[in-house]
Each structure stands twice: as structure tokens, then as C-alpha cells.
Amino acid sequence: MNNKINKVVLAYSGGLDTSVIIKWLQEKYDCEIVTFTADLGQGSELEEAKNKAKLLGIKEIFTEDLKEEFVSDYVFPMFRANTLYEGQYLLGTAIARPLIAKRQIEIAKQTGADAVSHGATGKGNDQIRFELSYYSLNPDIKIIAPWRTWNLNSRSKMIDFAERHQISIAKDKRGEAPFSVDSNILHTSSEGKVLEDPSLEPEEYVFSRTVSPEKTPDEATVTELIFEKGDLISVDGLRSSPAVMLETLNELGRKNGIGRLDLVENRFLGMKSRGIYETPGGTILLHAHRAIESITLDRSSAHLKDELMPKYASLIYNGFWWSPEREMLQAAIDKSQEMVNGSVKVKLYKGSVTVISRESDYSLYSLPHVTFEDDDVYDHQDAEGFIKLNALRLKIINKRNSPKK
């Protein structure tokens, strides 16, 4: 196999790790480097990353705002399934990786690069998510994962390397960072260092996206969400783009302390890790979406979706967004959303989301059938035969298992 690398596209954040990777790639492979920085709503300055790449000698620099594509083509499809990994995690980091990887592969083709690279560590899930995506989209691409091969395996070693090569280091990156942070328009995750002991409550300074529930307003906020085919199309009567609507929900969630999660999860590699997640807008969206489904989906469709969801969530968490099985599940999920139209009102109060109303022209909720008052659409005697038929196998089992006299 030819190990010569001619040009590599690096997923570049502008931070210490990926800045060091640029110099390391230049030294080890003596190759051309293309940087790609995606704005997924993490709040970082694209221009700052671009300027830093220039200072490091990079000639081909790609910086792109992908927030709308991220929300419309990745976040919204995931939320149609009410996706939760291990019953709690809204997959804010996992769902961003396939989009970044897709653009890297596209840029590699555009620039004639024969390799791609990322800054994910050898212990985490992101290396798997990036690389499964790379191979799915270009089976012949070469992949460079520095964290699995270099000897810069500590913060102090990386800083020494950066100083030797005159790479600028943010003041808060000198010494040991208290924890690592990954952020995008959907969520913020914090893990490592002071958060590694799951027996210790995280300090308030860990949370950057939400006000502490104890410090939120004493009056509840009521907001209305309107859905069409399972996707959010309006917040409080205002129709806007998917990313703008999610940002609106984020602000509503932020000021009401919505979406905090302290989770010990099972990584794909087999180890457990503790993460502190903040998903304010996504938490509101999940509650509202389930509410509109409760009146527009029939029982069997809703229950089947709930059975499929854990598999779907695991595929995203483990990096199989581009797999045929995920696409098969997506097709089934999207089919279920054809009549998921209507409005939901939720009350936000001190960290909680409470559904207070749901309406739809496609509602399956029939008041004449469920009322406790008189009706002329339901014969109560019909239930007797239904019960006897469902009890038949139970009666036969009981007779078989009863002691013989």
C-alpha cells in the first residue's frame, strides 16, 4: 500500500489541538494541507480560525456556515424519531460528525486531496464517527488520525510543541484545562478532568447554555410550536428557517433552565464516560414533537416507532449515519410523519417542559369514543368478546400449568 500523502483535508477548529496537528502533518508527511472549518453554531469565530490557518502557512482554507444544512438535514430528521441514546442523550455531538465528514470528502475531491484528518482522540467516539463516514463516502480515502500515532499525548507536550513552532496559544489553554467542551447550535457537551468522577456534582460554572433552574423567572413561559410532516415550521406564530427556529427555542430554554443532563453513558469502544449536556431548544422540541404525535399517530405506528428508536439512536451514536440500515429506518420514520401536523403549546418553568395543549386537523383523538358521558358510537358490550378472545391463551396456559388433581 502506498503510504505517501500528497494533500490532506483537515477538520480544523482553530484551537490548540488542530493547530498543532497542522505543524505535525507538515513535519511528518511533508504534504500540502487544506483546512476546513465548519460553523455549526458553536459560537467560534470563523475569521479567527481562517487567519490562524494563514499564519500556519495554509494556502487553501475553507470556512463555511453550515447551520441551516445541519438543522434541516441532520437535526430535524433525527428528531422525527424522538431520538434518545440510552433513554436520555439527544446526540448533539454525534449528529454533527457526518456533516463535517461529508464536507471534508467533498473538499478532498474538489482540491485533489488524497487524505483527510481529524483531531479526535483514540479513546472517544468521534474518531469512529468521522472515519466510518469517510469510508462510507469514499472507500479509497486515506485517513490520518494523529492522536493514535503521535507522542504528543499530554497537554504539556502539546504546549511545548506549539511554543517551539511559534503557534499562538489562548491563555485559557496554558496548563491543564478543567474540562473539554464541544458545542454547536443543538447542544453543548462538557467532559473530562473535573467532571470525570460521577459521584461529584458539577459546579455551576460548567454550564454555559442555560440559567440555573433555581435562578430562572418565577413566572412560566408559554410557547407554541407548529409542525408540518413532523418538522417544526413555526415558533410563536413566526415562520423562519430551521436554524433560526432552533436558536429561538434555545433562547427560550436558556432563560428557563431547560435541557441540562448529567449522564454516564456507554461509549462504542466499551468504556463508560460521564458527560454534562445542555440541549435547551432540543429538549423543548422533543416534548412538543411527542405531543403532536400523540394525537396524529395511531397506536401501532407510535409503538413501532418507539421500538425502532433505540436502534436508530445507536446507529447515530456509533457513527453509522451513512449506513444503509440508518437510511432504511429513516424511510420508515419519515413515512410515519406524513400526518404529523398541528400545534402544541408548552409551559417552560424552572427546568421543566410541560405540554399544555395539542391541536391538529389530522387528529385521531375522538371525543365521542372516549367520553364518560352518553354516546352513540360505542357499544360497551363489544368489549366483552374482545377481552375473552385476548384471554383465551391465558386461560389455556393456566390450565396447562395448574397442578393435576
Layout: helices, strands, pairs:
Blueprint: E1 7-11, H1 16-29, E2 32-39, H2 46-55, E3 60-65, H3 67-79, H4 97-111, E4 115-117, H5 126-137, E5 142-144, H6 155-164, E6 180-183, E7 188-191, E8 221-228, E9 231-235, H7 242-255, E10 260-266, E11 272-278, H8 280-296, H9 299-317, H10 324-336, E12 342-349, E13 352-359, H11 367-370, H12 382-401
Parallel strand pairs: 1-2, 1-4, 2-3, 4-5
Antiparallel strand pairs: 6-7, 7-11, 8-9, 8-12, 10-11, 12-13
Helix pairs in contact: 1-6, 3-7, 4-5, 7-8, 9-10
What would you note in describing this structure?
The structure is a single chain. This protein has 405 residues and is of the alpha/beta class. The chain folds into three domains: 7-66 and 94-177, Rossmann fold, CATH 3.40.50.620; 182-359, Alpha-Beta Complex (Argininosuccinate synthetase, chain A, domain 2), CATH 3.90.1260; 368-401. The protein is 40% helix and 19% strand. The strands form three sheets. Strands 3-2-1-4-5 form a five-stranded parallel β-sheet, sandwiched between helices. A four-stranded antiparallel β-sheet has the order 6-7-11-10, with no helix packed on it. Strands 9-8-12-13 form a four-stranded antiparallel β-sheet, with helices on one face. It is elongated and about 85 Å long.
